[in-house]
Each structure stands twice: as structure tokens, then as C-alpha cells.
């Protein structure tokens, strides 16, 4: 009678219903749908229940064993784990089980159900990834807008000072700088919202051919003209022009972030030097400053956006959210490049970037 009830129930459900006899170590009932879920014939499992264990991923077997011990102690359990099927197929399975006690409060059976939750697990992972993308996008926008906004603030201060003294000869230059900073802000927002600038093979790289030496000079010039930076920025290259095929917007973000980072940690008497040279099929870009350097114990965490150990206040008390260098690394690697850092405390910091010239 019990088997008939279970059979009728299981026919209307994809879930696998089971009743496990603790005394015999075998199933008193097991839904026929087990074969579809587990990839093992029901008759084989009825004969030898241990065959179920062999399909469970090695990494999950310990957790499953611990849950089994709990239910043997009279505790209802719920667990999700992965199983491996023929032809390298993977499934995520959810099992719920509870103990059945007799009149003497002795556990005689385990009753429960198992179901395929692979799609639900994938959907949860999608939601988690979407949340990570959203958070990453907000972090990048918040961080990378600081440079252009600092330039606008500096120019506004210069305008106030000149207006107070009725000097207007630099007005055209100031408006050009503000327009350039505004353009950088809007372009950044557009790019981030479009691409989400995350670790993803689907993030597009819009390559175009441009002179990288001129691009670095233009980017540094914006900082110098706005007087955001009080220290000299030197651009050095043995070649007057180096043509590359990179994403111009992402490359500009890299240079902006490197300069902004150096400004934070370099005293007024220091300097920044950016060197560019083509070597074989690669562009070698070196960004060096004579700032306070990075303590050795912090260097392993520089490019880790999920670790706050490398966060430090700037020399003027500027707050750091700790993701600037991780953004740089993401943008470099997204374009097929590499980045390394060498630094000694009170001796400055040098970043070494390598990009392919052509793709």
C-alpha cells in the first residue's frame, strides 16, 4: 500500500522519493525517476545503495557524510551537492531527509526526496554575478571620476582667483580644460555602463590605431594645465611616435589612474616620469614616481580589489577605496597586456606595463 502511494506521488513529480531502512541498509522505497536524476539504474541502487556515493563529486563527499551522520542522530537535513554523470555531465542535486522514529523513539527509517536543482543553481550564480557586476561598475565609476572631477575643481579655483583680480587671459584655456574633463567623464560613464569593465570574456575591447606617445602627453598635459599636480610630469620616449592598436578609452583610464595614484603619494619636491619604447612586437611603458613607496607587506595585495589591506591615506589625507590598481590591472589584461610593480619604502614606485603593438 505504501509503495503504491509513493508511486502515485512520484509519477506527478520529477523529485525522487525515498524511504531508507536503517536496519537493513537498503531502500524500502525508491522512485523510478532516480535513473533519470542520478544516471544509475534504480534496480542497481536497490541492490547496492553505496553506488549512489560513487557519483558524488569528491569535494562534496565529506559534507554529504556529515549530513548523513546528523540525520542518524535525529536531525532533519538539507544539502546541495554535485554529481558526475557519464559523458562528463554535471548536475547539482538537492536532498532533504528526516528521521522516522518508532514508538520507542528509535530511528528506523530515513525519509526524504532528491531533486535536480542545476538550473536553480545556475540562476543563483547568474544573480550573484549580476550583483558583482553592478558593484564593480559602481566602484569603477566612483573611482575613475575622481581624476576629471579634481581637474574641474582645480580649474574652478583658478577661475575664482583670476576673477577676483580681473585677469581673464587664461579663460579660453580654462574652458578647454573643463570641456576636456567633462568629455572624459561622460565617455567613462558610457564605457562603464556599456561594458561593465569586469573580468569577463564578453567585455568588448574597441581597438583603434593611435599614437600612444601623443596620447600620454595629452593626458598628462590635462593634469599639468589644471594645476591639479604640483610636481613635474616627464614624458620620455626615444621615438617621436609609436603606433598601437589598443582601446583608446581604456588606455586613457590606465594613464589617468596611474598619474592620480602617483599624485596621492608623491611629495611636492618629487616627480613623475612616464617612459615609452617599442621593443619587438610590444610596447613597454614605465610609470615611475619618487613618492613614499609601498611597504613590502602591502605589495601582495595591491591588485586585489577584494582585500583592503593595501588601502592608505594620501599625503594630503585623500581617502583610498583600494580598487584603483585592480582597475588598472583589469584594463591592462583586458587588452592582452601585463603589469608589474617594483617599490621600496621612501624610494618611490615603478609600474612596468607591456602591451602588444598590433593584434
From TrEMBL:
One of its GO terms (molecular function) is phosphorelay sensor kinase activity. Keywords: Kinase, Phosphoprotein, Transferase. PROSITE patterns: HIS_KIN (PS50109), PAC (PS50113). The keyword Transferase applies. Its EC number is 2.7.13.3. It catalyses: ATP + protein L-histidine = ADP + protein N-phospho-L-histidine. Residues 77-129 form the PAC domain. Residues 140-359 form the Histidine kinase domain. It holds the Pfam family HATPase_c. Coiled coil: none annotated. InterPro entries: HATPase_C_sf (IPR036890), HATPase_dom (IPR003594), His_kinase_dom (IPR005467), HisK_dim/P_dom (IPR003661), HisK_dim/P_sf (IPR036097), PAS-assoc_C (IPR000700), PAS-like_dom_sf (IPR035965), Sig_transdc_His_kin-like_C (IPR004358). PANTHER family: HYBRID SIGNAL TRANSDUCTION HISTIDINE KINASE C, TWO-COMPONENT HISTIDINE KINASE. This is histidine kinase. It comes from Adhaeribacter radiodurans.
Amino acid at each position: 500500500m505504501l509503495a503504491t502511494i509513493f508511486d502515485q506521488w512520484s509519477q506527478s513529480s520529477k523529485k525522487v522519493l525515498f524511504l531508507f531502512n536503517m536496519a537493513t541498509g537498503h531502500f524500502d522505497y525508491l522512485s523510478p525517476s532516480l535513473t533519470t536524476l542520478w544516471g544509475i539504474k534504480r534496480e542497481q541502487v536497490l541492490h547496492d545503495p553505496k553506488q549512489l556515493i560513487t557519483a558524488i563529486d569528491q569535494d562534496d563527499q565529506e559534507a554529504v557524510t556529515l549530513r548523513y551522520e546528523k540525520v542518524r542522530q535525529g536531525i532533519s537535513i538539507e544539502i546541495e551537492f554535485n554529481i558526475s554523470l557519464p559523458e562528463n555531465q554535471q548536475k547539482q542535486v538537492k536532498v532533504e531527509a528526516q528521521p522516522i522514529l518508532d514508538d520507542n523513539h528509535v530511528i528506523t527509517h530515513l525519509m526524504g526526496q532528491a531533486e535536480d536543482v542545476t538550473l536553480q543553481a545556475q540562476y543563483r550564480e547568474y544573480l550573484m554575478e549580476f550583483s558583482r557586476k553592478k558593484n564593480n561598475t559602481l566602484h569603477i565609476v566612483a573611482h575613475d571620476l575622481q581624476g576629471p572631477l579634481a581637474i574641474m575643481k582645480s580649474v574652478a579655483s583658478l577661475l575664482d582667483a583670476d576673477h577676483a583680480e580681473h585677469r581673464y587671459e587664461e579663460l579660453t584655456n580654462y574652458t578647454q580644460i573643463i570641456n576636456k574633463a567633462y568629455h572624459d567623464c561622460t565617455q567613462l560613464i558610457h564605457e562603464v555602463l556599456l561594458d561593465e569593465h569586469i573580468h569577463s570574456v564578453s567585455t568588448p575591447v574597441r581597438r583603434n590605431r593611435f599614437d600612444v606617445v601623443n596620447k600620454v602627453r595629452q593626458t598628462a598635459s590635462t593634469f599639468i594645465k589644471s594645476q591639479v599636480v604640483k610636481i613635474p610630469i616627464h614624458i620620455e620616449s626615444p621615438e617621436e611616435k609609436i603606433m598601437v592598436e589598443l582601446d583608446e578609452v581604456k588606455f586613457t583610464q590606465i594613464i589617468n589612474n596611474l598619474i592620480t595614484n602617483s599624485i596621492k603619494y608623491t611629495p611636492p619636491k618629487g616627480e613623475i616620469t612616464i617612459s615609452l619604447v617599442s621593443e619587438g612586437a610590444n610596447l613597454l611603458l614605465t610609470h615611475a614616481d619618487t613618492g613614499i613607496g609601498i611597504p613590502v607587506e602591502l605589495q601582495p595585495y595591491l591588485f586585489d580589489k577584494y582585500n583592503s589591506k593595501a588601502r592608505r591615506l594620501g599625503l594630503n589625507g585623500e581617502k583610498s577605496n583600494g580598487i584603483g590598481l585592480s582597475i588598472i590591472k583589469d584594463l591592462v589584461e583586458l587588452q592582452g597586456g601585463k603589469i608589474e610593480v617594483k617599490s621600496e619604502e621612501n624610494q618611490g614606485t615603478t609600474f612596468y606595463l607591456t602591451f602588444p603593438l598590433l593584434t
